[in-house]
Amino acid sequence: MSRLVLLLGVALAVLAPAAAAEGDASLTEIEKQVMCPVCGTLLQLAESPQAQRERAFINRLIDEGHSEEEVKDALVAEYGDEVLALPPGSGFSLSAYVVPIIAFLIAAAALAIGVLRWRRGGSGGTGAPPSAGPTGEDADRLDADLARYDL
Amino acid sequence: MSARSLIAVLGVLAVVGLLVFGLASKGGSRLQVGDTVPTAPLPQLEGGGSESLADYKGEWVLVNFWASWCLPCRAEAPALEEFQHQHSKSGFTVVGIDTQDLSDDARAFVERFGLSYPQLRDADGDIADEYGTTGVPENFLVDPTGKVRLVAAGPVDEEYLQKEVAPLLPGGRS
């Protein structure tokens, strides 16, 4: 019996927050994900009358029991895709996610090629071998200079 | 041209292209007198249909960009309705374009001011951008050929409508 109660407790602890997260929408969370289109800023940062109307609209939908996704869909229906702080991952908006990744890969490849070439150039042995030191007249002058500082 | 130079040139072109695209997508300058107005269809505020300014070809149209949250729009709405009432039988209409607004708020605005002229919705502000508006309200008088004849960047009142718009309309005083 006690084992059953324990199992039920664990199941509630795991499932309850997940169910809550799926069904509950909060203004605070949605404000971070949508724009005030007229203000051009995140709704979270906007204090204009337009932003207040948008908040009232969101609150009304939350009070009616709509989920976060449903509220965001309703906002898109009212203001268009631009109301979303992050563009949708489809159509032309997908480029907002793909282009930075491609640019990063190109930059990484260019860097790797550059480093390889640099390393190959440094150890290829095509240049003159390192000098063993001054010779002839230079060697005599170096010896004289060193002797002058010899204590 | 070596491969390395080609890559560098392509990279520079890509960056310049992105900058140009960014600037272009911010919208151009405001439509001027003589410009042809955009005719993309827009959803009607009431009902599920859509309308385009092309549907009004042959009529004089005062395109009025507005939003329910805009205080000057509230001030000019009665003057627009009165002007519509006076001239709607002489080949003229006001067409309201509600931009970047909540549809319920917009409908409440129309009801509050008893506006009888057609109302369209520009939810994302794209059409307002095509007109080059910088805010609301803004008004564009469009002639029967679809060209802009007057631009008022800001609210209009009865005096402006009678002095500037009325004389251009059929049978108008000049």
List the helices and strands and how they pair.
The complex is a heterodimer of chains A (151) and B (174).
Chain A: H1 2-23, H2 27-31, E1 35-36, E2 41-42, H3 49-63, H4 68-79, H5 95-123, H6 136-148
Antiparallel strand pairs in A: 1-2
Chain B: H1 3-24, E1 42-43, E2 50-51, E3 60-66, H2 71-87, E4 92-99, H3 103-113, E5 119-122, H4 126-131, E6 138-142, E7 148-152, H5 158-165
Parallel strand pairs in B: 3-4, 4-5
Antiparallel strand pairs in B: 1-2, 3-6, 6-7
Defining traits:
heterodimer, A: 151 residues, mainly alpha, Helicase, Ruva Protein, domain 3, two-stranded antiparallel ribbon, B: 174 residues, alpha/beta, five-stranded mixed beta sheet, 37% helix
Please explain how this structure is put together:
The complex is a heterodimer of chains A (151) and B (174). Helix content of chain A is 64%, strand content 3%. Chain A is built from six helices and two strands, in the order ααββαααα. In chain A, a hairpin with a 4-residue loop joins strand 1 (35-36) and strand 2. With 174 residues, chain B is of the alpha/beta class. A five-stranded mixed sheet of chain B has the order 5-4-3-6-7. The longest helix of chain B is centred in the N-terminal third of the chain and has 22 residues, at 3-24. Chain B is elongated. In chain B, 33% of the residues are buried. The interface between A and B is medium-sized, with 13 and 12 residues.
